[in-house]
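Friendly challenge for the regulars: who can give me the structure tokens for this chain first? No prize, just bragging rights.
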Amino acid sequence: MFSFEPLKTLRYSLWLLAGFVLLYCKPNTPVYLEGFSQHNEGYYFKLIEIGENTKPKLEECFYWLDVKFKTLNDSVFWDSQHEGANKVFIRAKTQAANYLMQYVQQLNTGDSAQLYIKPPIFFKQQFGSQRIPYFCQADSFVKIELKVKQVLTATDWLDLKVAYSNTEASAIKAYLKQSSPLAFTDSLGVTWFNTSHLPNMQLTGGEVVTFSFRGQFLDGRFLDATPQTLTYKVGTPDQVLRGINYVIKHLKKDENAKIILPSQLAFGELGSSNGSVPPFTPLVYTLTLIDVKQND
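First reply, four minutes later:
Bragging rights claimed.
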């Protein structure tokens, strides 16, 4: 007669083996992630210190941050005190698919935390880049250290904007005094080093133009430049900076201009999305209008 005992014994052994695998053969958690929680999106987070501010946050507020981005060996490659000019702000209720922005909105003034985000996701979200820099290519995560300096109310934010606007105006004035005291600032706030382009606009919008540019900070640091040329339709939203679009309209074919764009015509009160331009930062541009075609 056939006996089921061997099958029972085999099944019991398999259950014991499965239990052993689940209990003792879990994927190894790196030491640096011990004590961290994993978000369902895949990043890791840990609240390091709770600030003394227990006031409820208002819906209309901004988070003023101290942030450092590090490699796994703790080398800092971006710092809000230096590259960010101590002006890193996140608007509350931001719905962007950005893990740092999402997590910060759970914090309050004085709170500090650490996050670990996988490099491909981090550099795409923070810098808009599909490329992982050489210094992070061997790392499994990017380490983020952050502290909420202050949760700003709408009134706090307006006061801060006024202060930064005054500082920006003073910086432009000092730059012009040293480099070009005869420059002219028009009613929109653009400073022209050659006033022959004013006051008449040459283009009305809709023209397809080809131009080149070079951008830099007031201290001379290089920002960006066209590899060769750039073509776009004049007036098309979000193709170029608002100030660039405005200046292009004043140029004729083969003309060039050197201008200063105030921050409200450049990257504004929150800075560039990739972190290369801090908030409230005026920029110097040199542009050349290479070709103009009427859009049929």
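The chain has a mean pLDDT of 85. The radius of gyration is 27 Å. Your move, everyone else.
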